[in-house]
Amino acid sequence: MSPPRAADLPEHVDVLIIGAGLSGIGTACYLQREHPLKSYALLEARGATGGTWDLFHYPGIRSDSDLHTFGYEFKPWTDRKSIAGADAILAYLRETAAEYGIDRQIRLHHRVHGAAWSSTDALWVVDVERTDTGERMKLSCRWLFCASGYYRYDQGFTPRFEGTERFRGPIVHPQHWPQGLDYQGKRVVIIGSGATAVTMVPAMAGAAAHVTMLQRTPTYIVPIPSEDPLAKLLRKLLPKAWAHALMRRKNIAMQRFIWRFCQRYPRLARRLIRWENTRQLPKGYPVDKHFNPPYDPWAQRLCVVPDSDLFKAISSGRASVVTEHIETFTEKGVQLKSGQELEADLIVTATGLNLQALGGIALSVDGAPVHLADRVAFKGMMLSGVPNFSLALGYTNASWTLKVGLLCEHFCRLLAYMDAHGYSICTPELGNPAMPTRPLLDFAAGYVQRSIDTLPRQGDRAPWVMSMDYQEDTRLLRDDAVTDPDLRFSSHVQTATSATPDVTVAG
Fold first, then answer.
1. Closest to 19 in 3D by CA, of 394, 387, 351
2. Rounded to 5, what percent of the chain is helix, strand, coil?
3. Is the pLDDT of residue 119 over 90?
4. Is residue 409 classed as helix, strand or coil in its secondary structure?
5. DSSP per residue over 164-221, as a string?
6. Quick one: CA torsion of 87, 93, 98, 102, rounded to 10 degrees?
7. Would the keyword Glycoprotein turn up in this protein's UniProt record (predicted)?
C-alpha cells in the first residue's frame, strides 16, 4: 500500500483551541507569549468572536464581576466603569485579539463535533464542520484545549409552564432576544431572580410602562458602585499597567474576603446583606419576603447591582418584585397560585442556562468513548485517562478569568516541561481508583444541579480537587512543579521504536 499523500493528511497544529471567547482568546495570548514557535488555531462555531459577550443582546447586559479581575492580567482594563456593559467588554476582547495578533489565527464558523485520540500517533484527530457551508473536515493536533465555556449557546433553559400557548403577547428568553423588540410603554413580567433578571429589570424600567420581577425564590442582591474611585485615582498617579495590577490585587483580596466571610459567618453575612437591602428600599418595604433567600450567602452566586440600579427602579415605582409560584399563563399574563393575575404585554423567561460540558464535543481515546461523568478533574484543568487534553473552567465564587489565567500559565509550563524532556504524551491517572468522588461544582444554582450528573467529578484530595480559592490555586498552578505522582509522561516515538514503557514522573 502506498503511503498517504500530503494532500490527504489533515492539517496539523501543535495546539488546537476550541472557542474564541474570553477564555479562548486569553489561552492563545498566553500560548503565543510563552511558546512563540508552536503552531495553533482557534476554532469558533459562531460567526463572531467574543463568546457570551457577542451572543447575548438583552437590555442592560453586563458583567457581574469587576473587569480588573474579569479582564486579563496582562491587558489593563482602562474603562472608567469597573462593572461594564457587554459592548465595552466585547471591544476589550477584540482589541486584545488584534493587539496580540490572535485574530489572524481564529477560524469562524468552525464547529467541532468530535475528537479522537491516538496513542500510537500521539495526536488528536478532530472532526470539524463549516457551519456556513456544511463542509466537513479533519484537523489534527498534539494538544486539544477546550475553552468553549460550560453552557449551550443555541438553547437557554425554560421550565414548562402551563398555558403558555394562551398568552397573546410574545414570550422571550434573554438568550434569544429578538433584534428590535419594542417594549416601550408596555407591561413587562420578567420570570427569574438571578443575574440576568436583576440586570434587565432596571434596564427596561426606563422605557416600559412597568416591569415586574416574578421570582419563585429570592436571591442575595448586593449594590456596588460601577466606578471605583480608587481606580480613577491610581490611573492619574501611575502607569496603566501598575494601576491595573494594584486594582486587581485589591479586588482579588476583597472577593476572597467576602466569600470566606460568608462561608464562616453565614448568619452575620445574611444580616448585613438584609440591612443593606433595607437601607436601599422604601421604608416599610417587605424585605424579608422578597430579599431573604432560604439558603446561606454564596450557596449560590451573589447578584450585584451597580449603583443600586435595581433598588432605585423599585423605589421609583417603575419596577416591582413579586415572590410567588406560577399556576398558569393566561391570555392577559400570568396567574399565580395565590389567585393573583399579573397582566403583561411581554413575558421574559430569565430562567437560566443549559449546561453543556465541552461544548457537546464527543471525545474518544484509542477508540473508546470518553464518558465525562466517569472522569475526575485533575487540577481543575485535565481529565483522568484523557491524554493531552485541557479545559478552561473558571471560578463560580469570584471572577471566572482569575482561574482561567492560572490554568493557562500552568498549561504553558507543562508544555515547556514536556519539550525539555522529550515527552509527547501527558495523561492524568488516578493513583487510587477507589478514591471517593463528589460533584465537580459544589454549587446550588439550578442550572448546575440540573446537569451535575453529566459533568466530570472531583476527588477528596489534591490534585483532584476543584479548588475555588485563588491563593490555593496560585500555589498549585503557578508556584508548584508541573509534575505529580498521578501525572504520566511518555514519548510515543520511544514506545513505537523500542517498546519503552510509559514513564511516571513524580514531582
1. 394
2. 35, 25, 45
3. yes
4. helix
5. GGG--S-EE-GGGPPTT---TT-EEEEE--SHHHHHHHHHHHTTSSEEEEEESS---E
6. -150
7. no
C-alpha to C-alpha distance for 226 and 232, rounded to whole angstroms: 12
| Residue 486 and residue 432 in contact, taking contact as beta carbons nearer than 8 Å | no
Q: Please give the share of the chain, as a percent, with pLDDT higher than 90.
A: 81
Cell readout for 457 is 467529578
Question: Coil, helix or strand for 243?
Answer: helix
Q: How far is CA 438 from CA 318, 445, 452, 457, in A?
A: 45, 16, 10, 6
Nearest Cα to Cα of residue 361 among 132, 175, 149? 149
Whether residue 3 has a cis bond before it, omega within 30° of 0: no
Which CATH code for domain 164-349?
3.50.50.60
d(CA 237, CA 243): 8
Fold agreement between 9-153+354-504 and 164-349 = yes
- Bridge partners of 117, per DSSP, are 124, 365
Q: Kindly report, residue by residue over 371-399, the tens digit of the pLDDT.
A: 999 999 999 999 999 999 999 988 888 89
As assigned by CATH, the class of the 9-153+354-504 domain is alpha beta
- Tell me the sheet residues that pair with 146: 18, 391
pTM assigned to the model: 0.91
Give the count of beta carbons closer than 10 Å to the beta carbon of residue 151.
20
The domain ranges of the chain are 9-153+354-504, 164-349
